[in-house]
Fold this sequence. Notes:
The structure holds six protein chains of six kinds.
Chain A: H1 20-30, H2 43-48, H3 53-76, H4 86-108, H5 110-116, H6 127-137, H7 142-172, E1 174-175, E2 178-179, H8 194-218
Antiparallel strand pairs in A: 1-2
Chain B: H1 6-16, H2 27-32, H3 37-68, H4 74-96, H5 98-104, H6 108-112, H7 115-126, H8 131-159, H9 171-185
Helix pairs in contact in B: 1-8, 3-4, 3-7, 3-8, 4-5, 4-7, 8-9
Chain D: H1 2-6, H2 23-26, E1 30-32, E2 39-42, E3 52-53, E4 60-61, E5 66-69, E6 78-79, E7 84-93, E8 99-107, H3 128-137, H4 150-154, E9 164-169, H5 178-185, H6 187-201, E10 205-211, H7 215-224, E11 231-236, H8 245-253, E12 268-272, H9 273-282, E13 291-297, E14 305-310, H10 315-321, E15 328-333, E16 340-341, E17 355-360, H11 361-365, H12 379-383, H13 390-398, H14 402-409, H15 419-423, H16 430-447
Parallel strand pairs in D: 1-14, 9-10, 9-12, 10-11, 13-17
Antiparallel strand pairs in D: 2-8, 3-5, 4-7, 5-6, 7-8, 13-14, 15-16, 15-17
Helix pairs in contact in D: 3-6, 5-7, 6-9, 13-14, 13-16, 14-16
Bound molecules: flavin mononucleotide (3 copies), riboflavin, iron/sulfur cluster (4 copies) and FE2/S2 (inorganic) cluster (FES).
Residues 142-146, 148, 150, 168, 170-173, 241, 243-245, 270-272, 275, 338, 415, 417 of chain D line the site of one flavin mononucleotide.
Amino acid sequence: MESKPKGKLAGFFHFPQGDGLSTDEFIKGLWRENPVLVQVLGMCPTLAVTNSAINAMAMGLATLFVLVMSNILVSSLRNVIPKQVRIATYILIIATFVTVADYVIQAISLDVHKALGAFIPLIVVNCIILGRAEAFASKNGVWASFMDGLGMGVGFTFALLLLGFIREILGSGSLFGISLFADSFQDWVIMILPSGGFFALAGWLLLFNGLKLRKKQAQPEQTREEVLI
Amino acid sequence: MKTESLWFIFLNASLINNFVLAYFLGICPFLGVSGKLSTAFRMGMAVIFVMLISSMAAYGIHAFLIWVDAPFLQLISYIVVIASTVQLVEMFIKRFSPSLFKALGIFLPLITTNCAILGLALFQTNKGYNFIESFVFALGAGIGFTLALVLMAGLREKLDFAEVPVIAKGVALTLLVGGILSLTFMGFAGLGG
Amino acid sequence: MLILTALGALGGLTVVLALLLIIANKKLQVVEDPRIDIVEDMLPHANCGACGYPGCRPFAEALVHGDALPGKCTVSSDEGRQNIASFLGVDVGAQEKMVARLACGGGINVARNRARYQGLQSCEAASLVSGGGKECFWGCLGLGDCVDACDFDAIHLDAFHLPRVSEDKCTACGDCVVACPKDLLSLHPVSHRLWINCKNLEAGDEILEECRVACTACGRCAMDAPDKLITMKENLPVIDYSRYIDTTKPIERCPTGAIVYLDPKKGKVSGPKARPVIRKGARTEAPT
Amino acid sequence: MLFDLLKKNPTFRHGIHPPQFKEDTRDKPIRHFPFAPVMIIPLAQHIGKPSVPVVSEGQEVTRGQLLARADGFVSVPMHAPASGVIKKIGRVPSISGKMVPGIFLEPFPGSSQEVLEGKPVKVETSTPEEIINAIQNAGIVGLGGAAFPTHVKLKIPEGKHADTLIINGAECEPYLTTDHRVMLEQAPDIIQGVRYLLKATGATRAIIGIESNKPDAAVNLRNHLPPDLPLSVQVVEVKYPQGAEKMLITAILDREVPSGGLPIDVHTVVVNVATTAEIGRLLPHGRGIQERVITITGPGIKKKGNYWIPIGTPLRYILEQAGAEEDIDRVFMGGPMMGTAVSSLDIPITKGTSGIVAFREEEARKKDVKIYPCIHCGACVDACPLFLNPSKLGILAKFKDYHTMASDYNLMDCFECGSCTYVCPSHIPLVQYFRISKLVLRNEKAKAPHV
Amino acid sequence: MTVDTIQPEKKEVGSFKMFQAMVGIGIICALAIVVTYQTTLPVITKNKAEALEKAIYKVLPGAQTRKNFQWDGQKFSEADPSDHSLKDVIYTGLDANGAMVGIAIEAKGQGFQDAIQVLYGFDPEKQAIIGFYVLDSRETPGLGDKIASDAAFQENFKALTARLDESGKKLEHDIQTVKHGTKSKPWEIDAITGATISSKAVGNILNHSAQYWAPIIKAHIDELRTH
Amino acid sequence: MFKKTLHIGTSPHIIGGSSTDQIMRNVVFALLPVAAFAVYTFGLSALLLLITALASCLLTEYFLNRWIGKSSPLSDWSVTITGLLYGLTLPPHLPLWMVFVGGVIAVALGKFIFGGLGYNVFNPALVGRAFIQAAFPVAITTWMAPFLPDRFSHIPGSTLTLPFLKPVYDITSGATPLSLMKFEHHTTDTYNLLMGMTSGSTGETSALLILLGGLYLIARKMMNWRIPVALLGTVYLISTVLHWSNPDIYPGGLFMLFSGGLMLGAVFMATDMVASPITPLGATVYGIIIGIMIYVIRVWGGLPEGVMYAILFGNAVSPHIDNFIRPRVYGTGKQWSKS
Ligand SMILES: Cc1cc2nc3c(=O)[nH]c(=O)nc-3n(C[C@H](O)[C@H](O)[C@H](O)COP(=O)(O)O)c2cc1C
Ligand SMILES: Cc1cc2nc3c(=O)[nH]c(=O)nc-3n(C[C@H](O)[C@H](O)[C@H](O)COP(=O)(O)O)c2cc1C
Ligand SMILES: Cc1cc2nc3c(=O)[nH]c(=O)nc-3n(C[C@H](O)[C@H](O)[C@H](O)COP(=O)(O)O)c2cc1C
Ligand SMILES: Cc1cc2nc3c(=O)[nH]c(=O)nc-3n(C[C@H](O)[C@H](O)[C@H](O)CO)c2cc1C
Ligand code: SF4
Ligand code: SF4
Ligand code: SF4
Ligand code: SF4
Ligand code: FES
């Protein structure tokens, strides 16, 4: 952790030494600490809005926006906010950005807004956002928090897209609304139904588990000299 | 115009469009707190309780915001009011019934920032329910949530003693069971229609 | 106008909320030593219980309250223990590394079975059926309950169905000691290298029929041991580890190899008089 | 026919119907058995403290002479099974696989069956205490299998009372016919034994419970009933484990022994018929027990039958005398449902041995079948006479959740009758699981105070 | 043993500071929201109105403009088109000449999964439904959601009889959904195969709504025209 | 003189009753007449469908178990039942590729993932069917008329649809008795239902053969009779009472019993012991719950048939039934104190 900042705003534009660190903040959210695939957080939007790639994308971007903005604001205000009212203020901040995102999406496309339904406002309660604010932004500088939010947000979007792709391709035979196959393609309706969400995510997790297991098996632990007894 | 009957609102919220299995609200506790039956049940009770409270709170706020003509504050005030109301109630319970607090109280903070609660408030507003309807809706949603959670907990307790392949251990298995439960609940579709 | 309403409404809300939180903050503060969390984080989270506490958290509490010393944690690295010690400003409470040791050398190459056990493949289960069918009642059944009990992958059965403990991996959590129905495993400091590798309470050369490496209670090791390090009790030699001397003298004349020296490099070393352990025509099937 | 259905014999609920296999031996009268060249007499043939030798190596003893005295109340003495020389006092092989303290006795060649007599104990003139002491001095333990010292059971604890004495002649184990033969051949001894027992316990009535597959035994006993004795014969349904005391009490008296309790909690004392007959036979002569009736049977035995076998006769000798097949693969002491498989033929029979069953390879292999996971078929639940849930218990045991087994599923009530394992289509070794679980829990409990 | 190198942080934060921080942030938030709201409001309102108008013109072929009317239980009165909070609003569609083409009515009812919300055009002259549009539904994609897109199904609503009987209080024939391919009466709806339930739901919704509105419209048709 | 080393093991040393593979094999036997009649009724398409269903389940089971190293995975016959039952619940001319997909899902998702035989919490065959029903709702609710004259010479086009393509139907379609009842208020004659003269899923049409198979299994003690009896009794009772109160709305008891998948479900699927409660009373309660739910879905729900959903729901509550309905253990409770 960084050294103690001197003035109130000291940490505001405090760039960490070297770029390596913040790149890492960014990368880790993509894969190693991916909020959906590894930490299994924010499941509701993940499952609910991924029945098409567009929705997944919109949701991901909206979350990304809120995540980045709230991370920035929280980290810049982190020395002003007393510990006791931390959570309450974070929620206020997050709710604000969510409201902003909600109206912006509504202005851009009513259709998308309709498709995402109540889930835009529900970004407020997405555990990832509060989690990052609490676990990262409240302890780190603005730049690092920004990278962290960006990484997590992109990671989240990436995971949503993974789900959105498979659900839309199988479920509607299209991707981003563009039909992929001939008309005679048989849609797998289940994939756009709620249960399909569960199955698709479970499928990805199984796949990753399988890969992890295989990796483990591929490099067996070094055999150490065993002492006979 | 004919409005939905209370019975139907209840059925719809609890079974047909079960919050967890059809709307994907409150998945985190559904995955997280469904490991043990007793915990799941108490969690369910706590959720019903919080849902009723926040539904009423949301109804009040909505009326207030309409009155001051500031619909854009809906989200932020819902979340703030629900969170603080629940906290108030928590303190109240802690003070007056320590045993109840032990049983339900520990879940309260966990629940406040949960999709299902906020979702409930937003849905009831979107659907334009009046006070009684909101109440029934909240009750139905809470009971539906509890049902899903308790069913899941029973199955998971049983699966604790199964030779699950390593690859499926953990969240993946829970999700798969959730998927099958969700399929099962599709049988309720069209009920009361 | 809109701005005023907004400010009024939201301002009001935050005022109420702030008041609420202030009250809550005043009324319900939980005081817990924050060092407990920090120390818990420094522990290995194995929750193995080797420290004598039900888990890492209780141990952390004990550490912070000064009821225990970091050295009790056998799973943590030296560095880890040192870190906790310096964080809390206490002694490490250095404890010598302990390992589990097996007091039987009767693998299927040297020990005979009287009957063949069928049923659940666990030592606990087999030992309930006529002691498990091994001719030596005290001997290892080789079904690996200790292996299953070990969370650290430190025990494996060797080719002769005898468990081998890896000194590196063993954390001395004691799970295998509890698991063995024949009480063959016990925890010892690694430096104790002179070892009685048998528990058979019978005496005389007849028992070599049952097991080639059994202790016949001939008593030579006790005679040879310097400073009365070894005494014979109930037909078995007993090493007084409280005055342990690192010597290989006692194993020199043992005719069976029931007393061994556990060399860190060469492994189990038995004396020159002990006959080679592979018995001609021995049954090689597992003691099932 | 309808009438027959209506007057069905009383029984308990659940249980199983294994094939009986009793035809081979039930008509074979009890015969005497020769003395083995060496007798092996463990000092602990009963539940409780081992007895203490009162003879020394090289000493000559007469049949029926005291070899070892009881060590305290829960202990019984040992008597010499044959006249001969004490060869050694040391460790002897036992059924547990362990070498245990015991005596080697070498009978004199051609030693007679004569038995040393002691001071008679008369029913009419003795107090209950005297009778109980006499039973202890005779070295009598439960011959039904558990080998629990009978006098301990008869000593009614303070504050309790017995109103009924049940004589257990059910003999529900397949293959075994000892009790059957005893009831046919030793009715007067049984009647005499009941007199002692009634006096000792203060019970006001006695009932002999006999499974309906032994009608001749019931008729024989009824014919011998003296008019002055409050003794009756009750025929019960053929069903395993009808002979378990809890089940017999339920069948005959419709009482349920409370969980964790004893028959005396429902004012009942249960004694096996052979035990009763032994009391009636030994006490009037002041003798000690030196032999017992044992059924030797099973597909691996050529000369199946019921024999008086001196206690301490090694198994190998018995099998040789009874003409066992060369390829016997499993030998049990006791019946096939509850008995113990022996790992060595060098062990002796003890007071608790009620039968010896030898299987050849074909029969033995039938048990060695593929184990499937529990399919929740419920057969075990329908079989368990105690209404436990063996399926759940088995699954919990497999995952080593022993505490839940005891706290939620009444593991400790299980008396290991084996009905569940018998019926399980997946061939899960349920009883074995339960034995381990109980042992682990008992060990834990024993260690608990130190932690 | 009691060396406390790290003291538990004792932050004695004054209540006022907490108060200050909260309210301060609350104010910032309020400002942010209001600004967004005000900037996006016009666009959103426009979008919404367009969407509604599009739907209205769709169910009332030939309509060019529309008027909103609110029913207060007694009579119709013209309503502010931008006020979304009003209940019981119907829309009249006027052609280029200002003549009334028909009336667009919103209706709602339970479908297979959730409520279906529709808009339909009613022609008071012909006493028939002349257009149909699904505003919102959560029916199964590829199955129930065909009620919005299936051409054959839309065909039903080119002229679906909703004639009042003599009393003028209710429809002469209930609007009814029948199995696919069995439509024989002008007041019947030919269901979609594989989505009979959703089709039936549409029939029910229209029937309920028409039963309610047709008599009212008939009695007050002048109020709707004269304005 | 005795040649062998003795074997030792724990008591009991004898075992009785039938073994698991024996039970499973007998269920297959009981299902064979049903399958044969299905082929007779619906012809080649049904035959191909059953073969595909069996093959997909057997192959999935075989390869998955091989993968985790279990030996002889098919020896217990249970997956044969799964395959057969799964096939029997599908409409006869469902495209074979869909059949295959569902079979893989049934075994992989319904059984293997939970640990294989004995550990599945839902009925695998129904998991497969539920998946297919949700994935391809149109195909699975399109029915074929029975006893078509060319059923043994002509394979319907839909059966042979290429993978991932929509089926095209070229044969006479039929309406099931339940959808006739639900959408057209027309009840089919009980005799026709009993003898399998109606359209419907491949194996559900002949109630009589199903009943006979069930009776055989019950007689051999390989099936818990309480479940079908409670289930059928509940449905019959509710429908009779309601029919009596208003015959126009509520169909009669016999019609309810013999139409749709009720008989097949009650006799062969609700009775799958792995996913049903273990105690006698529990089994009865389970049957009643499923019965009630079938009635509710059929009569008040959106779908014409609810057997599958009801059984899956029953599976989901069965852990709770096992938890709460337990027989009183001997010697506990109040009763023993009476003496
Ligand atoms: C499962 C089981 C079966 C038993 N079967 C018999 C039996 O058939 N005959 C018998 O005398 N005792 C049998 N017993 C022992 C009785 O419960 C009881 O201990 C015995 O009858 C008491 O008499 P005893 O002490 O004289 O042997 C059985 C016990 C159990 C647990
Ligand atoms: C996953 C699933 C989704 C369904 N969705 C709808 C639906 O949205 N609308 C509908 O009317 N029926 C729906 N159904 C019901 C069936 O398709 C039903 O059998 C059909 O409506 C009966 O109509 P038919 O007689 O024309 O085949 C659905 C069924 C399933 C299994
Ligand atoms: C055991 C069994 C269970 C079934 N369960 C269902 C079910 O839950 N839902 C369903 O729509 N069809 C189910 N079916 C198929 C139906 O019984 C029947 O073929 C279907 O009701 C015809 O439905 P339709 O009216 O939707 O066309 C099942 C069939 C069987 C054999
Ligand atoms: C009476 C009986 C009914 C069965 N029913 C089914 C069934 O409906 N579906 C199924 O997949 N397996 C069934 N099985 C087979 C077996 O129990 C099933 O494959 C297991 O669920 C797999 O673990 C049945 C077995 C029996 C004995
Ligand atoms: S040491 Fe003990 S537990 Fe380990 S294999 Fe040997 S007998 Fe079993
Ligand atoms: S004699 Fe000693 S070394 Fe041999 S098996 Fe027995 S205990 Fe082990
Ligand atoms: S062994 Fe135990 S659990 Fe099994 S049937 Fe007998 S009493 Fe019941
Ligand atoms: S008899 Fe066996 S398979 Fe059946 S429920 Fe009991 S343990 Fe399970
Ligand atoms: S994201 Fe919905 S409960 Fe966590």
